[in-house]
């Protein structure tokens, strides 16, 4: 009996001693403040809450972890894209480490509301977010989990650009290698104003089709001017295209977008 009581007392002590973390309350206030400042679009004050060593997990399919520059650019991008943004928390929760021990981190479920500054469409975005903190109480890890593609389709503008690339027979692999290189389409996708980018190949005609959606055609034209005057990717592809430079055709601007 004494042994049983000892085990029970140890179990009770373990549970009671591990059901809180002294840093959680402070970190929770920091997380709430970060979200409140986001609604105010107070970028400079948000930066004061972020560690330079932050690692962040974007919500986009296949996206890799990003550092400080990527995270801060993403935050600023939301400020530019939306007005009247507000977070409505359903719940705030303490987080744990990989062993299930409460470590002072913060988790939250809820939804963002707002109005897209260009389209005027209203945002209603449900999701889950986490924040980890360093010893100084700065956010050093963060993750977004929500339907990013659905958000883009629902409220962002549709300024579609269609690019056709007519490739010489036997050179498709070489052109694809150029497009998929770090300076190719990944750079296009990361360029200011690019919302989405898709590629498909017609094997019968040996043609590559690239469909991009941009915040505005002005931003696309800025990108295109850079590609044509300062970059080398187009020049690298030209020898492998039917008709040389004429093998690349750009169709834009386009209007009257509709989805059925």
Give a structural overview.
It contains 9 helices and 9 strands. It folds into 2 domains: 21-155, Nuclear Transport Factor 2, Chain: A, CATH 3.10.450.50; 159-251, 2-Layer Sandwich (Alpha-Beta Plaits), CATH 3.30.70.100. The chain is α+β, with helices and mostly antiparallel strands and 260 residues long. Residues 5-18 have low confidence and may be disordered. The N and C termini lie far apart (72 Å). Strand 4 (122-133) and strand 5 form a beta hairpin. The strands form 2 sheets. Strands 1-5-4-3-2 form a 5-stranded mixed sheet. A 4-stranded antiparallel sheet has the order 7-8-6-9.
Oligomer: single chain
CATH top-level class of the largest domain: Alpha Beta
End-to-end CA span: 72 Å
Structural class: alpha+beta
- Uncertain ranges: 5-18
Q: Order of strands in the sheet with the most strands? A: 1-5-4-3-2
Main sheet summary:
5 strands, mixed
Instruction: Give the averaged pLDDT, no decimals.
Output: 91
Number of spatially distinct domains: 2
CATH topology of the largest domain: Nuclear Transport Factor 2, Chain: A
Shape descriptor: elongated
Number of strands: 9
| Radius of gyration over C-alpha positions, nearest whole angstrom | 24 Å
| SSE run | HHHEHEEEEHEHHEEHHE
Report strand %: 25-35%
Residue share in helix:
25-40%
Number of helices: 9
């Amino acid at each position: 009996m004494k042994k049983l009581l000892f085990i029970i007392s140890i179990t009770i002590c373990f549970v009671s001693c591990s059901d809180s973390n002294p840093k959680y309350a402070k970190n929770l206030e920091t997380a709430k403040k970060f979200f409140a400042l986001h609604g105010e679009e107070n970028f400079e004050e948000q930066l004061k809450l972020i560690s330079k060593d932050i690692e962040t997990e974007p919500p986009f399919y296949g996206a890799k972890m990003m550092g400080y520059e990527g995270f801060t650019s993403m935050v600023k991008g939301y400020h530019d894209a939306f007005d009247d943004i507000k977070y409505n928390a359903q719940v705030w929760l303490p987080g744990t480490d990989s062993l299930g021990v409460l470590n002072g981190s913060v988790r939250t479920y809820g939804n963002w509301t707002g109005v897209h500054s260009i389209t005027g469409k209203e945002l209603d975005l449900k999701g889950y977010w986490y924040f980890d903190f360093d010893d100084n109480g700065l956010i050093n890890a963060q993750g977004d989990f929500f339907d990013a593609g659905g958000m883009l389709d629902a409220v962002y503008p549709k300024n579609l650009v269609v690019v056709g690339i007519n490739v010489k027979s036997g050179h498709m692999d070489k052109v694809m290698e150029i497009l998929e290189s770090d300076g190719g389409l990944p750079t296009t996708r990361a360029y200011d104003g690019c919302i989405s980018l898709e590629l498909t190949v017609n094997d019968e005609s040996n043609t590559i089709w690239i469909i991009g959606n941009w915040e505005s055609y002005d931003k696309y034209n800025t990108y295109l001017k850079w590609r044509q005057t300062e970059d080398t990717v187009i020049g690298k592809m030209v020898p492998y295209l039917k008709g040389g430079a004429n093998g690349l055709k750009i169709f834009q601007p386009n209007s009257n977008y509709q989805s059925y």
